[in-house]
Specification:
heterodimer; A: alpha/beta; Aconitase, domain 3; five-stranded parallel β-sheet; 15 helices; 18 strands; 31% helix; globular; B: alpha/beta; Aconitase, domain 4; seven-stranded mixed β-sheet; 8 helices; 7 strands
Chain lengths: 413, 155
C-alpha cells in the first residue's frame, strides 16, 4: 500500500513506515513561539525543571500580536521574552519583522518535509512548502523545548483534487472558504488535508499559504502541498529526491477524496460568526459596511496587496468606510512600496499600518463596536474577535474586500 | 455529583476566554471572565465539581491553553462533549482537565441537572439514566492520571 504525504513526512522523520492511527514520537525540526504565549512557555519550561533548550537554534521567538505595544501590560511579554532568549542562548528572535507564520517560511526557518510546531493554531500554514506543521499549547511547547520531541497520532488524510482554470475574480481564499463551508468547522478534525491537481500546481506559494493557513478552521491537523520548483525557488533550495517524493501515492489510503472544478468557484464570504457559514458574494450584495481590513497571515502578502490595488487603482474608498491595510511582513511592506502598490492604496484612501497581526487578533488598529460590519481578509470571524461581540465580521478575499471598500457595501468583485 | 452547565456546538476558545484577557499574567486573574460572551454568570455560579456539557467541536479556534486552564481553575470536573477540537483536547489532557466524548448526553440533559461521571467505567449518570462515553487512549489516560504533562514528565 502506498503512503499519503503526511505518512511519508513522519516516516522520514522517525525512520520507519507509519500508517494513520499509529501513535509515534517525532523529532521536531523547528518550533515557533509568539509574544502572546512566551510568558507561559517560559514559566512552564522552568516548572518542568529544564535548564537548557534541546537545540536553541531550532527555536524561533516572534513578537507580532503585541507589536508595537498598545498597552503598558503588553511590554511584560517583551521583557520576559528578551530575558528567556538571553538566558537560554536563542538567536532566532524577531521583534517587529512581521507576522510569525509569514516569517517562518519567508526567513527560511521551514523547509519541505520538516516537522514544525508553534504556539498558534494557524501554524498549519507551513504545509504550503510541504512541511508538517501544527499548533500546540504552551505546556507542550515547553516540553518540546526541553526534549526536542512530541508524541502525535498519525492522521488520516482527506485528499482535495482541484483541476482547471480559476475565474478571474476568484482567489485562493475563495477556494479555501468554499472547502471549509463544505467540510464544516469540524469536518477535518484530527485529519490532514492534502491538495493536488493542476489548479494548485499552478498556484503561487503565497496562494497555497492562504489555503494551508485556514485548514485549522475545518479542524485539520495540517494541510499539505507537494513541494515543486516554485517551492524550491521560494525556499532558496534545490529539492532532494526525498523532498520530490512528498506526493500522495496513487494507492495511498484516504479517508475521503473531494473533487472540484476550478471553473465552478465563485467569490464567497464567511458570514457572521462562523468560518463555515460560507455564502456566494452574489447572495450578500447590498449589505452596508463600516470598515475593510486587508492583511493577516492569511492574506497580507504582496500578491494580496497587489490584487487589492488593481481593484482600487484610480478609485476611492467610500467616504464613511475605513480601509485598513496591514502587510504581513517588513519585506512585503518594502516590496509593496518599491513596486508602487502602496502608492495606489494610499491614493485610494487606505490607512496603511506597520506589519503585525493588527486587527486580526482584535488588539489594535480598527476595533469595532456594536452593530458595525467589517469585511476582512483574515481567517476568523468569531464573536468578539475584532471588538464587541455584536460586530459583524465577513471573511473575504483581498479582491472582494477592495471592491466592497469602494462601494461602501457588499458587492461582487 | 456536580451541576451541568450546557453549551452548544462550535464553542471557540475566544468564547471560553476572550483575547483581551489572555494577556493577564495569571490564570487566576483570567478565570472570572470564562465564557463571558456566552454566559456572563458562568464564572460566578460554577462550583468545584461541576461539569461543562457541550455539543460538537468544543474548543475550536486558537491554540490558547488558557481556555482549558480557566475551566480547571474554576473547578470544572470535566468537559463532556459530542466532539472536541484537537488542540483544545491535547491542551486539556496536558493540564489535567478530563475531556470526555459522549455522543448522547448533550441532547438529553438540561442546564442545572445533577450529573456523575465515572471515567473508570466510561459512564455518565444523569436523572437516573446512564450514558456510555468514550474512554481515553491509554497514553492520554496515563498523562491525565498523573495530573498532566508536567507531573508526567517529572515522574
Amino acid at each position: 500500500m502506498g503512503s499519503t504525504i503526511i505518512e511519508k513526512i513522519i516516516r522520514n522523520n522517525i525512520g520507519k513506515e507509519v500508517h494513520s492511527g499509529d501513535i509515534v514520537t517525532v523529532n521536531v525540526d523547528r518550533v515557533m513561539i509568539h509574544d502572546i504565549f512566551i510568558p507561559f512557555v517560559a514559566s512552564k519550561f522552568e516548572e518542568m525543571g529544564f535548564t537548557r533548550i534541546w537545540d536553541a537554534d531550532k527555536a524561533v521567538l516572534i513578537y507580532d500580536h503585541l507589536v508595537p505595544a498598545s498597552q503598558v501590560d503588553d511590554t511584560r511579554h517583551f521583557c520576559i521574552g528578551n530575558a528567556f532568549v538571553e538566558k537560554y542562548g536563542m538567536k532566532n528572535i524577531h521583534r517587529a519583522d512581521g507576522i510569525c507564520h509569514q516569517l517562518m517560511t519567508e526567513a527560511g526557518y521551514v523547509k519541505p518535509g520538516d516537522i514544525v510546531f508553534g504556539t498558534d493554531s494557524h501554524t498549519t500554514t507551513y504545509g504550503c512548502v510541504g512541511a508538517f506543521s501544527s499548533g500546540i499549547g504552551y505546556t507542550e511547547m515547553a516540553s518540546i523545548l526541553g526534549t526536542g520531541t512530541l508524541w502525535i497520532r498519525v492522521p488520516e488524510t482527506i485528499r482535495v483534487n482541484i483541476t482547471g482554470k480559476l475565474p478571474e475574480n476568484v482567489m485562493a481564499k475563495d477556494i479555501i472558504l468554499k472547502l471549509i463551508g463544505d467540510l464544516g468547522a469540524d469536518g477535518a478534525t484530527y485529519e490532514a488535508l492534502e491538495f493536488a491537481g493542476d489548479t494548485v500546481e499552478n498556484m503561487t506559494v503565497a496562494s497555497r499559504m492562504s489555503m494551508s493557513n485556514m485548514a485549522i478552521e475545518a479542524g485539520a491537523k495540517c494541510a499539505l502541498f507537494t513541494p515543486d520548483e516554485k517551492t524550491a525557488a521560494y525556499c532558496g533550495i534545490s529539492l532532494t529526491d526525498k523532498e520530490k517524493d512528498l506526493v500522495g501515492d496513487a494507492d495511498a489510503r484516504y479517508c475521503r477524496v473531494m473533487e472540484y472544478r476550478a471553473e465552478d468557484f465563485v467569490p464567497v464570504m464567511a458570514c457572521p460568526s462562523n468560518v463555515d457559514n460560507v455564502k456566494p458574494v452574489s447572495e450578500l450584495t447590498g449589505k452596508e459596511i463600516d470598515q475593510v481590513f486587508i492583511g493577516s497571515c492569511t492574506n497580507g502578502r504582496l500578491e494580496d496587496l497587489m490584487a487589492a490595488a488593481e481593484v482600487l487603482k484610480g478609485k476611492h474608498v467610500a467616504p464613511f468606510v475605513k480601509l485598513i491595510v496591514t502587510p504581513a511582513s517588513r519585506k512585503i511592506y518594502r516590496e509593496a512600496a518599491a513596486n508602487g502598490t502602496m502608492a495606489v492604496l494610499a491614493e485610494a484612501g487606505a490607512i496603511i499600518t506597520h506589519p503585525s497581526c493588527g486587527l486580526c487578533c482584535g488588539r489594535t488598529g480598527g476595533i469595532l463596536t456594536d452593530g458595525e460590519t467589517v469585511i476582512a481578509t483574515n481567517n476568523r470571524n468569531f464573536l468578539g474577535r475584532m471588538g464587541t461581540s455584536r460586530v459583524n465580521i465577513y471573511l473575504a478575499s483581498p479582491r472582494s474586500a477592495a471592491a466592497c471598500a469602494i462601494a461602501g457595501k457588499i458587492v461582487s468583485p | 455529583m456536580g451541576k451541568i452547565f450546557k453549551f452548544q456546538q462550535d464553542v471557540d476558545t475566544d468564547q471560553i476566554i476572550a483575547s483581551q484577557y489572555i494577556i493577564f499574567p495569571t490564570i487566576d486573574e483570567m478565570k472570572g471572565h470564562a465564557f463571558e460572551s456566552l454566559d456572563p454568570d458562568f464564572a460566578s455560579q460554577v462550583q468545584p465539581g461541576d461539569y461543562v456539557v457541550a455539543s460538537e467541536n468544543f474548543g475550536c479556534g486558537s491554540s490558547r491553553e488558557q481556555a482549558p486552564s480557566v475551566l480547571k481553575a474554576l473547578g470544572v470536573q470535566a468537559v463532556v462533549a459530542k466532539s472536541f477540537a484537537r488542540i483544545f483536547y491535547r491542551n486539556a489532557i496536558n493540564i489535567g482537565l478530563p475531556v470526555i466524548v459522549c455522543k448522547d448526553l448533550h441532547d438529553n440533559v438540561n442546564a442545572g441537572d445533577e450529573m456523575e461521571l465515572s471515567m473508570q467505567e466510561g459512564v455518565v449518570r444523569v436523572n437516573g439514566k446512564e450514558y456510555a462515553c468514550t474512554k481515553l487512549p491509554e497514553y492520554m489516560q496515563g498523562i491525565l492520571d498523573q495530573g498532566g504533562l508536567i507531573a508526567s514528565l517529572n515522574e
